[in-house]
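Morning!

As promised:
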Amino acid sequence: MGRAPCCEKVGLKKGRWTKEEDEILARYIKEHGEGSWRSLPKNAGLLRCGKSCRLRWINYLRADLKRGNISEEEEEMIIKLHATLGNRWSLIAGHLPGRTDNEIKNYWNSHLSRRAADFRDGVVVNVDLSKLPGGGKRRGGRASRGVVAAAKAGKENKAKEKEKGKGKSKVAEAEQQQQQQEQLEEDDDMTVSTPSSHSQPSATAQSEEQAQASASGVTSDDGPEEDPLALNEEMMSALLGPGSPKLADGSRMDSDSGPSVVVDSDSGPGGPTGDVAQELGDKAIMDWDLMGLDISTADDMWDPLVWDYADMDVVVPGGGHHQQEEVTSDLFFLDNM
DNA sequence: AAATTTGGCAACCGCTTCTTG
DNA sequence: TCAAGAAGCGGTTGCCAAATT
């Protein structure tokens, strides 16, 4: 039996909202409060779908909305948050009071993604996540209620989830995100922090790996103990400005001369453990496969995946190999742009 | 000045998750 | 425990105004 449509579509108005409709909706919500979106249009006398009413209210009519251009601070915030959270616009919007997920999403797509593309021209990494366990599909759908609830409830929820013996629950995930948020809030001026643990080269590589993992839903087996938001300055400068990752020999992989890296785990029945050996243009050859990706414990892409970099190797024509950390670092950017 | 192209934004759509009976 | 309803998220579409030809 099919599920009933969210609203009776016949006879309902679509398209732009009129001033009159806005007034009706705003007045109704002012009197009755938010919620009950399904019945709202009928009660308010609007020929609109409940979802449409909700969207109109959230994205346009709400009193606490901040209208006007996105400031540079907000823009930087968006970039930084997107690097960590990916396309989870509602979470990003949660850090920007008065801004809606839709607004941020549009701003990203129309302004920031272009800048990201400028950067990405240097190296294009196109990992076919569909081959990963769970289809590599981002979990969509409603998250905020659980996330927000978890964020509000905080640690008590965690305790409950532990009691239930669930694995990596949404609540736990939400709490982890909450921790990230807290980290962000601690970082008041939003300057890029470089934890002391990053002072050692190996630690830096590890943090980058974790940051990458956090953004892509892939976590290292060491757990998210370090702040995935703690991008180092090099990463942020590359992220925020023109440029591209440095190669081991000091050259840059830019759009004019740079290689186009395509990593497509088109691996057949073997899944992500199959071969990935792709040409990297005329400058470098990435010769690695996903043998290093241990998916044995992963139910879906959000579960912990363990990378073993032993099989990763980037051969630079003219001699030399890229270190694994550099590969990881590069991938981090690209995966999050 | 008219036609075409481009970019930004509002809104819609499909899917997923959460809630409730 | 399960099914249906409700709510919300992210991707996509389409309109409109500005810019360009």
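The radius of gyration of chain A is 23 Å.

Hope this helps with the figure draft.
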